[in-house]
Design a protein that fits this description.
Homodimer. Its main location: cytoplasm. Pathway: Lipid metabolism; fatty acid biosynthesis. With about 325 residues, the chain is of the alpha/beta class. It has helices at about 25-30, 35-40, 55-70, 95-100, 120-130, 155-160, 225-245, 260-270, 285, 295-305, and strands at about 5-15, 20-25, 45-50, 80-85, 110, 135-145, 165-175, 180-185, 195, 200-205, 210-215, 220, 255, 280, 310-320, 325-330. The protein folds into two domains: about 5-175, 3-Layer(aba) Sandwich (Peroxisomal Thiolase, Chain A, domain 1), CATH 3.40.47.10; about 180-190 and about 220-330, Thiolase/Chalcone synthase (Peroxisomal Thiolase, Chain A, domain 1, 3-Layer(aba) Sandwich).
Length: about 325
């Protein structure tokens, strides 16, 4: 293992989801589909959806408090907060509001947007601040409320998405670097495969001048292309991250993928020859929670006692952009 002056330790996790549960039976009353059709094609049985009174900031704050408590730190010990989200409560960002809610008065806070890859991109970004010695205690949050932007009459997308938030605390560690390797990728030529796009409408200000004002449209997705992309690129990027970590795949204790579709999870595991019992997943209960899916699944596995200190985790995120990436790390 490569040793460096300042390494990373992942010392706390937390998660939070809305109270409202939307199951497949209820969806069948909203769109023309069946419970068998949904579960056989996605693996999803239920998902959580935020009410109008719930906010992304509220859920993210709950997850953050739990992660900080597990780490043994106080919010005032935090130097940096990175919020990975595509659905901030405020278009200017929600990280600073979370900072205030936590009472993390010393922390710099900013939003990062990379859709379903967002948490992993935020995780790697935070690690660079620690490795350079700039910050010692960093909170990384992945949170999304995609129910706000789902067309509930479109069965191709409304069956997939749920809401939630997850968080981890990363700390400087001078004895061992727990982030073993990573690889991040983007391909904007496939951007139109998965979008939540702004639709401008011309508004005349003067007879000779107009501006484009409008709103964001519902999520649009080419499911077949996203599936092809994921089953090809995700195993590749995990293999590259493992190469950078200088470890073999049989040393991986847990495969932790973005919870998008059970068929994708299964295909990636088969490609990497990772047995089913090593694949972490909660897709059936929460659906695709975008940037929140990896940290929610991680937190549940830690609190259930599945993941032990020192376990090697191969994590991978993938989604709109198109973006994808992998990080190989040890828990604890």
């Amino acid at each position: 293992m490569k040793e460096i002056g300042v390494g990373i330790a992942i010392t706390g996790s937390g998660s939070a989801t809305p109270a409202n549960v939307l199951d497949n039976q209820a969806l069948c009353q909203m769109v023309e589909t069946s419970e068998e059709w949904i579960e056989s094609r996605t693996g999803i049985q239920t998902r959580r959806v935020a009410s109008g009174e719930e906010s992304l900031t509220e859920l993210a704050t709950q997850a953050a408090f739990k992660a900080v408590a597990m780490s043994g730190l106080q919010p005032t010990d935090l130097d940096l907060i990175v919020l990975a989200t595509s659905t901030a409560d405020d278009l200017f960002g929600s990280a600073s509001k979370i900072q205030a809610n936590l009472g993390a008065t010393r922390a710099v806070a900013f939003d990062l947007t990379a859709a379903c890859s967002g948490f992993l991109f935020g995780f790697v970004t935070a690690a660079q601040f620690i490795r350079t010695g700039v910050y010692k205690n960093v909170l990384v949050i992945g949170a999304d409320l995609l129910s706000r932007w789902v067309d509930w009459g479109d069965r191709r997308t409304c069956i997939l998405f749920g809401d939630g938030a997850g968080a981890v605390v990363m700390q400087a560690n001078t004895t061992r670097d727990r982030l073993l390797g990573f690889e991040l990728c983007s391909d904007g030529s496939q951007n139109d495969c998965l979008t939540l796009a702004f639709q401008p409408q011309e508004k005349a200000l003067t007879p000779n001048l107009s501006v484009g004002q409008g709103t964001y449209q519902f999520i649009q997705m080419n499911g077949k292309e996203v599936y092809r992309f994921a089953v090809k690129r995700v195993p590749e990027v995990i293999e590259k991250a493992l190469y950078r970590a200088d470890i073999e795949v049989d040393r991986v204790d847990w495969l932790l993928l973005h919870q998008a579709n059970q068929r994708i999870l299964d295909a990636v595991a088969v490609r990497l020859k990772i047995p089913t019992h090593k694949v972490l997943g909660n897709l059936a209960n929460y659906g695709n929670t975008s940037a929140a899916s990896i940290p929610i699944a991680l937190d549940e596995a830690v609190r259930e006692g599945k993941i032990k200190p020192g376990d090697v985790i191969a994590a991978a995120g993938f989604g709109a952009g198109l973006t994808w990436g992998s990080a190989i790390f040890e828990w604890g």
